[in-house]
Amino acid sequence: MVNSRIIKQRESLPIFHFRQEIIDAIKNENLLVIIGETGSGKTTQIPQYILESFEDCRLIGVTQPRRIAAITVANRVSEEHGTRLGSEVGYCIRFDDCTSAKTRLKYMTDGVLLREATLDPKLEHYDVIIIDEAHERTLETDVLFGLLKETHRLRPELKILVMSATLNVEKFSDFFNECPIFSIPGRTYEVAINHHRDAKIISLKSTYVQRAVDTTLYIHTHEPPGDILVFLTGQNEIEKSCRDLDNQARELNYRRDVQYYDEVRNLIVFPIYASLETMEQKAIFEDPPEGTRKVVFATNIAQTSVTIPGIKYVIDSGYVKQKSYDPSTGMDALLVVPISQAAATQRAGRAGRTAPGKAFRLYSRESFEQLEVDTVPEIQRSSLLGTVLSLKKMGIRDILHFEFIDPPDPMLVKNALKQLFLLEAIDEQGMLTPLGDEMCIFPLNPFLSRVLIASARQFGCSREVSTIVAMLSVEEIFITPRDEERLFEADERRKVFYHSSGDYMTLLQVFEGYRDSGYDRDWCRDRYLNHRALSMAKNVRDQLRELMERHGVSIISCRQKDNQDGDHRKKRSKQTYYETKKYDFTKILEAFSTSYFIHLAKRHPHRSVFYHYASANIHTSEMIDSNSSLLALHISPLSALHPENKIVKVDSLDWVIYHSILYTSKALMKVVSKVKLEWIEEKLKLFKKLETVDLGVDDNKKDKQEKEVDDESVDSIGKESNYIDEEEM
Ligand code: CDP
Ligand code: MG
What we know:
With 729 residues, the chain is an alpha/beta fold. It contains 27 helices and 23 strands. Helices cover 40% and strands 17% of the residues. Mean pLDDT is 86; it is low at 569-576, 617-627 and 700-729. This is RNA helicase. InterPro entries: DEAD/DEAH_box_helicase_dom, HA2_WH, Helicase-assoc_dom, Helicase_ATP-bd, Helicase_C-like, P-loop_NTPase.
């Protein structure tokens, strides 16, 4: 049963007055753009209106850019609808399908719909597709736009709705054959904008966190009642700000310091970033107790996806954490970058939803004017590896001329094609190979799909590799505590799992320990392991194995027969650690090398830094001199191979492969393993071959010029030092 409070809430939303008009518009149009202010009720209400008034509608799919949004919205809507989550209303995100045969309304990530479209371009199961939060312009959303346009040609009766906050809507309509735009009239109030006086503030990244806390305290002590929303960039700085503000507020003498003492006598502080824990704190979305001011430190998630009621003051750091393509590695990195003017305007607007408000920008008006006008869509700043593979799988040969709403830089497309060639997913003419076709079975990064297939077909270790791949598909396994003493303890506990070949095997050992504990939560806690991540890894592993079985990818173990109970404990510099002898681990590393030779790095002859093979284009005999301007790669302190962990001697390391790079003050290689050059010599020839193939893109000459430009950007990346930690946005 739906209670009357929920019915009241639904009816109080701005969108409710336009219910019938919206239903009529959807009845009349098969392509429609709907815009409305954030919080007006698009995401939660429109799919329900369809559900309630189109009785013969079988399935409605609604995409969300964020996994967390898909889950929380589905939760909320199933509650409003009065059904259990997963029955009539459900969600589906990668590796977590919470739908059933009964499901008629399915919230999903744009990535999930994209995968479904790869398998069935007509999307036959659906009667309505809603691309929600279209203004976010994620990579997947942009590709979906192109595909849906084709789906519309094939199945004109499919209803396609694009929902967006009030940004750039003409563009969407123009793209979809100039379809009608339904605009939900919104009430917004005046927001007074205060810029910071310091003209240079936009370049002083280190100070914005402190400044944000100071400004919050200023508002709390000087401004009338009203809640405060602060835009920062990531989990770490959000948690730090919460602590700092709590501490400073505790020292206030309210009677003396707080101007509006009669109305605000207290402060309550919340973090919000893309994790279920922060989203599930109901109190964030409720009014604070009488006499209390609510402060929410948030990532970009609060800019347009999540609405926090009662906000009267917005503090804008001017920064966002954003996925950006790193030409030195061909991978994406999360970087903190200045926001666009459009984003700054959206952020300020969050203060004027229910009454006039104030926005405090922690940067000057001059800096504001220097910001980019619009946010660059993700497709123009990301690695397109997975996207290009999906498009190839769908039979789209000429990717450079695919109908994108904003086409990606041809350089990005070509780099993706090159990597796919190195992975042997496409041939010299750019045609999908049988291997490439098989790689599409798995909802994984193409590097990992390739490894998994090689482990089954060539190296006989797919049982172990499926576990390691699962471990690599979840969030960080090792917990790094903040206080020194526990940090030391965590470092010690972690050592037990280190394997002398490196981190792929270490991850396997962690998982096996977890399995042997009976998947025990306390076992994880005692070892500073992230239980949620490990239990997710178990789940992912099971799903991968199911897919392998279904598609005839055999599950074989490289466990050695004469070593059935060959677990050893070795003594090494007072550290007891556990190193399994059960497996022929070189097989596992060889399997990983089939993809990760692309991430091959060679150690400097006299130091413990490494250089990327492909960008350095070094040949085995050549020495790298210490003045090299190449990006110096360091081994992550969490790695088994880090010199201070004393598992291996640095000079025993010549060649390593790494999984990803994390930019802190240095470029850190994460998940590093020792490899032998003889395993990969053959593969390295592919790099040479790249220079002579056109991959179906017939402008090889131009390509070479671009390559030189690439190499220059390697230098600048190497010198840049203000990168950040990878974490959830
Ligand atoms: O999509 P749009 O931004 O237009 O609005 P919405 O996400 O449908 O949200 C409508 C209202 O429902 C907002 O006022 C939210 O505060 C509320 N809501 C909620 O209470 N809990 C959720 N999980 C989602 C939305
Ligand atoms: Mg929405």
